[in-house]
Amino acid sequence: MSLETLPLIVRDWIVALFPDVLQWLVHHLLSIAVILTVFGLFFAFTTIAERKLLGRLQNRLGPNRAGLPKLSILPFHLKHKLWGLSQPFADAVKALTKEDVVPDAADKVLHFLAPVVIVAFSLLGFAVLPFGRHLIPVELDAGLLYFFAAGTATELAIFMAGWGSRNKYSLLAAMRALAQLISYELPLILSVVPVVLVVGTLSLPDIAVAQSGWTFGVLPHWHVFTPWGFAGFLIFLVAALAESNRSPFDLPEAESELIAGHLTEYSGFKYALFFMAEYFGLTALSGLGVTIFLGGWQAPFAFLEFIPSYLWFMMKLAGMIVFFIWIRGTLLRLRIDQLTRLSWQFLVPLALLNLANAAFWALTAGWSGPLVFVRWAVSAAIVVVPFLILGRRLSGDRAPRTYRYAS
Amino acid sequence: MGAAAGPLVRAVHDEFHGDLLEVSMGPQHPSTHGVFRMVVTLDGERIVKLKPVFGYLHRNHEKIAEGTSYLGSMPYTDRLDYLCSMSNNWAYALAVEKLAGQPVPDRAQYLRVIMAELTRLVNHMCLVGFLFNDLGTSFTPLLYAFREREKILDLFESLSGSRMMCNYQRFGGCRVDPTPEWLAAASALVNNFPRFLDEYETMLTGNEIMLARTQGIGRLNAQQAINAGITGPGLRASGVDYDIRKVDGYGFYPRFDFRVPLGAHGDTYDRYMMRVLEMRESVKILQQAFRDLPAGPIMDPKAKLRGFRPKIGEAYGRLEGPKGELGFHLISDGSPNPYRYRVRPPSLINLTLLEEMSLGHTIADAVVILGSIDIVLGEVDR
Asked: Where does the chain cross the membrane (chain A) (predicted)?
């Protein structure tokens, strides 16, 4: 009875309470319930973490007022504000109680369906992520393929929202969203393919297992610590930012240009659902990145293995989310043509070259001795040289200028 | 626009370009800097027509001023460009002093320069912050800019009693004499300011996305700018050496040693850089002013506050406000209130070329161009 297997023991105990005929159903329903609760709470605390972190980045405090309400049924009243940790629940209550406005001209069906569809599809991705050594909701052989297929459907929902709102801003945002998501689907998938090539499987738990082991007990064999894996991880990060519509690629909801983009005509709980779906999508993509590049549920050092695997997964996931928040607090937004140019002229060629790089890596797996250094050097060169050349092409003749003064 | 402005390429609608979309951006759009409306005609994301619509904040400023005494209009000038009340006060005082032939003591002249340059810092901080907000940062640069702005506003408040509506200048001097402690605090703030600017510039000026979003966007050549009567940093970004502090030499500006930065391209990036470089020059002016501030009265002892009746005539007083040439044209008929009172608002006139700058760019660029022009609707609509 260790912490590692505790969730499984609890699950088996609950499943055993039911008759044999229903056991498979309960088994799956449990997985669904766990994903919904865990990631629902994760979403809630992601919002508060984002607001507080952005606040700290901007030398303010962020929300810190929402404590526990004064309830007469409680024998005591907690005066402490709990650092604003109950803010997301207050937000949820507010969103639920707000008026739900549907524009007169809107396509009622599409307008209603869009938030439902987007939440449903953004949740599908969680089904195949290995959250721990034995914690996989659905063991699919082609988990990776399924993940991308499910994620692609969210674009449909964004277009539904933009089109169904009958609002010019929403329409522009929907067009932008489609252009952006189609552009970045390709580098996102291409950045993952090298891993599939090297590991030789589409099954996510197997990819996580393939990254086990340590050199000298301290250097983990994660893909991010190889040249091609590092490049792939960076491409994945940029594409994931764009796929989840976050700054600097938050064009569909560019509040300085399009008010709120495809969310302009949404209010109350529908808006909250969109918000939720955005964070679910971000979390699922981060989980995929953790699984594929950051060793999944593996501990970084051998002596830290006593910490259960699902905690490692969650810690890495939180790290990715914090990184995304940090980016949001720092960078500016790109323009739509620059955004697509970045994808087609920079990320896609790099990702394709990276695929060749991974092929080279797989071919030279048998090299040993001094040849190992040659292998690393060649692999690194395949990443760095095109990056510099393409980067120079992309920035063109843009540089900070010097100015003259009137005499 | 006159024909001399050069051939302006106007997009032509043909049947191969599909439908045009007309979007009314404003007056409640989050990034129009107040209640301002742009009727934009879009072809996809490109702008083929843009019509600025303003007047939502019209407050009848000029007509009210004709009905009140000369001094009674001073608080109203605060509300013109509500970020730079000190400059507005000074511009109005300049016009009235010209009209009445009123001299100003030395200490007041120095104080006016100090206040005007602090105001310039405040305004440029705001502009840069809002510009980055339009560029899509989630408020981070804006809040850092506001942190510095707050310090200056605190100084204004301790001096004049109000953070933004200072109502500080009088005809023939200033209203309050700053204490030595105030001067020490202001001097310390100004000496620390370049450090903040360096930090800000390190983070933002060389940023790749910033360069991509602003360089070559909203170009304005010198000829167009001069023809449209654009003044201030927007004109100097196009490479025209025209700074009223140098041209007119009003106040005590000839005594100060400062340089006028000039741009070469006239695009949004140049307009942004003009502001940053001007802030550095303002810091220099302020340091000289704190060093040379003489003792003495802050009001001309002969100045009349009550029963102020300038002789019949007219005068136009102007100064280099943070946004451009701010002028007041006054006609006196010998009565206690002006017969005609006219403001030359830089924001309104700088706005006139918005369409020429935005044509052919995307809607996202139009927002950035508007942000770089630096308008305040209180001054546009008056």
From this structure: 25-49, 112-132, 144-163, 184-204, 224-242, 271-297, 309-327, 347-367, 373-391
